[in-house]
Amino acid sequence: PDTTMAASASSKLSKAVKQQYMDLPQGDQVQAMYIWIDGTGEGLRCKTRTLDSEPKTIEDLPEWNFDGSSTYQSEGSNSDMYLIPQAMFRDPFRKDPNKLVLCEVLKYNHKPAETNLRQMCKKIMGMVQNQHPWFGMEQEYTLLGTDGHPFGWPSNGFPGPQGPYYCGVGADKAYGRDVVEAHYRACLYAGVKICGTNAEVMPAQWEFQVGPCEGIEMGDHLWIARFLLHRVCEDFGIVASFDPKPIPGNWNGAGCHTNFSTKEMREEGGLKYIEESIERLAKRHQYHIRAYDPKGGLDNARRLTGHHETSNINEFSAGVANRGASIRIPRSVGQEKKGYFEDRRPSANCDPYAVTEALVRTCLLSEEGEEPVKY
């Protein structure tokens, strides 16, 4: 079968020639790449500025602005948007002392942009600081050629059915491992709390995990990990998709399973608090479905069918070691009577700020009803 991949033109430029320039000394000046979420709530944008010295803290980074009319974020007539630095990482592409800077977006009136869900998330996390909420998110994604065809799949058909690919090894089972290895190291270098990777059930589908992270750090680290994945894929000339169901039919979708615990849940007898949280979640299923993908549940409807290790989008369920449930309690947690639980509903393209905020609101602030409480 023909497996010649559609790779980007940019990836065919000489990397050896580029390296000649990257090896040039840069003096005391530092390149800071500012990164933000665009008006789709899924896309990331970035641009770079020169700083005269290496920034040591967020306070050392100047605020900046950009043209929101070109990022689906504003009208052309009043298009200045503000970039407010919030988290800083090492840059694995330009290397030390250069930086990646995750920013919040504010509108001309200094109110958060529609897709800036970080500000509210941070406020909610601040209300439960003393409970030390920990999160770990499992980011699934699919590698595609620039033509949108899954990486390594035959150009005019399908690979063999699912079965041998999950955690697979071998050229006929693992499609695109170079990307995974490069991304892992890039995350470690940057200071992202990546804690693992594995090949997934569908060929060309992979997963990385980020955590444990406390509070707002979860969203910050996952968004930067996603940026790094897109940027690594760009170098290889292929594309990473977070679409929750990239291939219709008998192929697994892509989720972002979210593991959650508090200090109480992690201590002796914590299972009681886990069960209380699950009871609260059971009463607020629709609110969570709306928060768990960027289209208010429409994206997840293609994925949460009750097949392919998912629960049905219209029903709430929970169980020990059950991968067909909304909420899974890991077997070891059931035995040790403490630990964490896994919410399997978030979509691969979810906003982690929205997901972690929703969990805290329902489980820790005991909110009820279809709308978030205003504090």
TrEMBL record:
Q: Which cofactor does it need?
A: Mg(2+); Mn(2+)
Q: Which reaction does it catalyse?
A: L-glutamate + NH4(+) + ATP = L-glutamine + ADP + phosphate + H(+)
GO CC terms of this entry: mitochondrion
Q: What is its EC number?
A: 6.3.1.2
Where does the UniProt annotation locate this protein?
A: Cytoplasm; Mitochondrion
Enzyme class, UniProt record, top EC level: ligase
Similarity-based family: Belongs to the glutamine synthetase family.
Query: Know the name of this protein?
Result: Glutamine synthetase
